[in-house]
């Protein structure tokens, strides 16, 4: 993960946004990969390599949709997006999704869950072209953790209807199903106002970085060379426009399982290091944990997020 930037002046992010995640900085974000590198995209991995991770599916060819910045936000140190579930209502308080390592309270330790903690954090809301159209503000951190996944979800003081009426911006919808290998995706960074296009290369049983371990992570093909500050960016399925993951880290230097150098661990404990490859955390598992009124309820049926 990359260390998150403190304001726009700091250039170091953790793992894509945290100590190792991908946050905004001169290295990959604190939950999106390490140091900011002008990395040239390497040749795409072969379909045979990608097939090794499972969740493979045959997808009909669909003309890619242009993915813009509408609904994304810029944090002081990371990226994020205004999101909703299929059941969210216009009058519900809106939610902002980012990484756990992007929270203003700092990186939560292994096993730590932040739940319903007050917050007044502000976010710059972007339109389709990436221009800031206004500021939205949090009332609380509804949920945040770096255990099993790397997410933070803020509840805003504004409803979806108020945001759409004032700014003409609609929230991005969280997909409800596990993402599919080979899917064409776009990582949209509100911090840098930059997009990265590639495919889902496969899935990682366990992704370990420093003291944190994440389950069933998304691995990108090499074309997505995300940098610090991209931590928390929504990963959008080009065909549906829905959010399937949140960008969070990458292996910067080829080291094994260290900060900013996550390693892949399979079911048998075999460790694989992929220097220059970046990762994201799936988001479909968030949906069952959000009930009426956009309230997080970790006891809801199907909710498997770690509890406090």
Put simply, the count of helices is: 2
Give the percentage of residues in beta strands: 35-45%
Mean of residue pLDDT values: 85
Strand order of the largest sheet: 2-3-4-8-7-6
Q: How much helix is in the residues? A: under 10%
Quick one: biggest sheet? 6 strands, antiparallel, barrel
Q: Helix/strand/pairing class, anyone?
A: mainly beta
What radius of gyration results from the CA coordinates? 17 Å
How far apart are the first and last residues' alpha carbons, in Å? Answer: 23 Å
**Helix and strand succession?**
EHEEEEEEEHEEEEEEEEEE
Overall number of strands? 18
- Overall shape: it is globular
**Low-pLDDT sequence parts:** 6-21, 23-63
Task: Annotate the secondary structure layout.
Blueprint: E1 23-24, H1 47-50, E2 72-74, E3 79-84, E4 93-98, E5 113-118, E6 122-126, E7 132-145, E8 151-159, H2 160-167, E9 172-173, E10 184-189, E11 194-209, E12 212-220, E13 229-230, E14 234-237, E15 243-250, E16 263-265, E17 271-272, E18 278-282
Parallel strand pairs: 3-9
Antiparallel strand pairs: 1-13, 2-3, 2-6, 3-4, 4-8, 5-7, 6-7, 7-8, 10-11, 10-14, 11-12, 11-16, 12-18, 14-15, 15-18, 16-17
Give an account of the 3D structure.
The protein is mainly beta. It contains two helices and 18 strands. The strands form three sheets. The protein has a six-stranded antiparallel β-barrel. Strands 10-11-12-18-15-14 form a six-stranded antiparallel beta barrel. The chain has a two-stranded antiparallel sheet with strand order 1-13. The protein starts with 22 loop residues before the first strand and ends in a 26-residue tail after the last strand.
């Amino acid at each position: 993960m990359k260390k998150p930037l403190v304001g726009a002046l700091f250039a170091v992010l953790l793992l894509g946004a945290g100590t190792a995640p991908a946050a905004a900085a001169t290295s990959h974000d604190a939950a999106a990969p390490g140091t900011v590198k002008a990395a040239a995209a390497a040749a795409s991995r072969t379909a045979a390599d990608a097939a090794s991770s499972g969740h493979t599916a045959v997808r009909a060819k669909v003309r890619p949709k242009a993915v813009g910045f509408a609904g994304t936000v810029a944090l002081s140190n990371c990226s994020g997006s205004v999101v909703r579930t299929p059941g969210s209502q216009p009058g519900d308080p809106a939610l902002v999704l980012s990484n756990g390592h992007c929270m203003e309270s700092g990186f939560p330790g292994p096993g730590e869950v932040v739940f319903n903690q007050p917050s007044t954090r502000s976010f710059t809301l972007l339109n389709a072209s990436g221009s800031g159209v206004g500021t939205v503000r949090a009332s609380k951190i509804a949920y945040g953790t770096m255990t099993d996944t790397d997410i933070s979800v803020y509840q805003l003081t504004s409803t979806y209807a108020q945001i759409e009426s004032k700014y003409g911006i609609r929230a991005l919808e969280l997909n409800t199903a596990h993402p599919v290998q080979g899917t064409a995706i776009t990582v949209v960074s509100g911090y840098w106002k930059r997009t990265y296009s590639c495919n889902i290369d496969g899935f990682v049983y366990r992704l370990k970085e420093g003291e944190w371990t994440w389950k069933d992570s998304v691995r990108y093909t090499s074309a997505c060379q995300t940098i610090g500050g991209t931590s928390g960016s929504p990963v959008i399925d080009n065909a549906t426009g829905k959010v399937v993951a949140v960008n969070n880290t990458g292996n910067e230097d080829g080291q094994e399982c260290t900060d900013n150098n996550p390693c892949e661990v399979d079911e048998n404990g075999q460790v694989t290091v992929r220097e220059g490859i970046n990762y994201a955390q799936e988001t479909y598992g968030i949906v069952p944990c959000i009930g009426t009124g956009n309230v997080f309820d970790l006891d809801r049926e199907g909710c498997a997020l770690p509890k406090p």
